[in-house]
């Protein structure tokens, strides 16, 4: 894959001094999240993997760094008037939290379709929430108009030099704590985080590659940098980076300083979320796990390198997380749903269950179907959900059932 060309002689609106100054401002009020070397992920991928746990911030996301830096740089008059933003996610939480802490009034505009829990969380930090429109674009346009009408300062979630400088403090800490890192994998939505990361990486004492990652459903920055037209739509697990139009400032920095951008599929995002919980015992949202998803998708690209991955956030709905984990178990063969055709007579299910017992497979659910089936009237279908140790164990069960004469179909996970 061709790399995005970098220019050494380029003027960007954010410098390493801006990032360092931002760190002085925000450091007393944020968590200096740990960066840890993952032996297990390193063994699995062939790279030396370091994880930066930004999901351990108070609002569970890195976004509060940029929001806080912007708030700190406001004049006293602007602080008194208040700020406004359009966001239904981590930017809203970070701005609301630090605005309340600093005594700055915060208004957040959200689409009417925003889940109630996100509205309540934002209001819980003391922000005024205004619900306008059906789409995020509607909310964003309304926020700009409200800013003008009420004299509020609009705080952009990514396309602002002060915000970018604040987000760059993540990478500043990473390279201070793990200077051996030579490659950064950074999720891209609008581009604020990777812009700050690139500024810091270019000032490091040794070369550091910066690789961006986007969800395949929302390849906006990828398409812009590659000069191609790609659709941006769909229900992605990584809603935190589901941005249809990247920023103008951030696109300029990415074009000048970022080495390449890769795409990851939904399946790999789900797998990365599950792996982080199973291996690192940490919860990451879809966007937060995108860096690891890129490493899993393109292992040959990073093999042997010292890779830094930012776990950008951990705000994921618990029901969605449960669904992701169960789907990952199904794909790995540890959870399966088998459709078995049998005769509808006493003892039929007992004989099927005997095979499961012999193979030491746990049955967790059974669903009979006698009406909606193409079998004869004396036939029945049983959908049996079961737990196995791994894929080979599941295969042994399938072979044993077929050896007993049963017609068995495995219902594949999505």
From TrEMBL:
Its EC number is 4.3.1.19. Residues 337-414 form the ACT domain. One of its GO terms (biological process) is L-threonine catabolic process. Pfam families: ACT, PALP. The keyword Cytoplasm does not apply. Signal peptide: none annotated. Coiled coil: none annotated. The keyword Lyase applies. Keywords: Lyase, Pyridoxal phosphate. It catalyses: L-serine = pyruvate + NH4(+). Its cofactor is pyridoxal 5'-phosphate. GO terms for molecular function: L-serine ammonia-lyase activity; threonine deaminase activity. NCBIfam families: ilvA_1Cterm (TIGR01127), PRK07334.1 (NF005600). Belongs to the serine/threonine dehydratase family. This is Threonine ammonia-lyase. It comes from Sphingomonas crocodyli.
């Amino acid at each position: 894959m061709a790399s995005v060309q970098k220019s050494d002689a380029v003027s960007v609106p954010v410098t390493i001094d801006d990032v360092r100054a931002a760190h002085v401002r925000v450091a007393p009020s944020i968590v200096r999240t740990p960066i840890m070397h993952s032996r297990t992920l390193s063994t699995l991928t062939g790279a030396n993997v370091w994880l930066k746990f930004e999901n351990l911030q108070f609002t569970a996301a890195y976004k509060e760094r940029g929001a806080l830096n912007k708030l700190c740089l406001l004049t006293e008059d602007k602080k008194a008037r208040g700020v406004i933003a359009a966001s239904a996610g981590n930017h809203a939480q970070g701005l609301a939290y630090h605005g309340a802490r600093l005594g700055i009034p915060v208004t957040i505009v959200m689409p009417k379709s925003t889940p109630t829990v996100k509205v309540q969380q934002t209001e819980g930090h003391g922000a005024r929430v205004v619900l306008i429109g059906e789409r995020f674009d509607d909310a964003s346009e309304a926020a700009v108009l409200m800013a003008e009408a009420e004299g509020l300062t609009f705080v952009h979630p990514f396309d602002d030099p002060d915000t970018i400088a604040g987000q760059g403090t993540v990478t500043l800490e990473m390279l201070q704590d793990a200077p051996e890192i030579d490659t950064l994998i950074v999720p891209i939505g609008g581009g604020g985080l990777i812009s700050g990361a690139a500024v810091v990486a270019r000032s490091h004492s040794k070369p550091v590659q910066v690789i961006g990652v986007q969800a395949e459903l929302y390849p906006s920055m990828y398409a812009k940098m590659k000069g191609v037209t790609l659709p941006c739509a769909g229900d992605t697990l990584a809603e935190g980076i589901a941005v249809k139009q990247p920023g103008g400032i951030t696109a300029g920095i990415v074009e000048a300083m970022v080495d390449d951008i890769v795409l990851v599929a939904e399946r790999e995002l789900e797998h990365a979320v599950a792996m982080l919980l199973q291996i690192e015992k940490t919860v990451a949202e879809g966007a937060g796990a995108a860096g690891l998803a890129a490493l899993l998708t393109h292992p040959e690209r990073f093999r042997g390198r010292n890779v830094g991955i930012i776990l950008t956030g951990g705000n994921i709905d618990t029901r969605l997380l449960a669904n992701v984990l169960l789907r990952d178990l199904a794909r790995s063969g540890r959870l399966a749903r088998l459709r078995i055709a049998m005769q509808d007579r006493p003892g039929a299910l007992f004989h099927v269950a005997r095979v499961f017992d012999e193979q030491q497979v746990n049955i967790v659910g059974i669903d009979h179907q006698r009406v909606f089936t193409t079998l004869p009237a004396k036939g029945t279908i049983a959908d049996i959900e079961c737990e196995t140790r791994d894929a080979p164990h599941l295969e042994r069960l399938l072979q044993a059932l077929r050896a007993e004469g049963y017609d068995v179909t495995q219902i594949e996970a999505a």
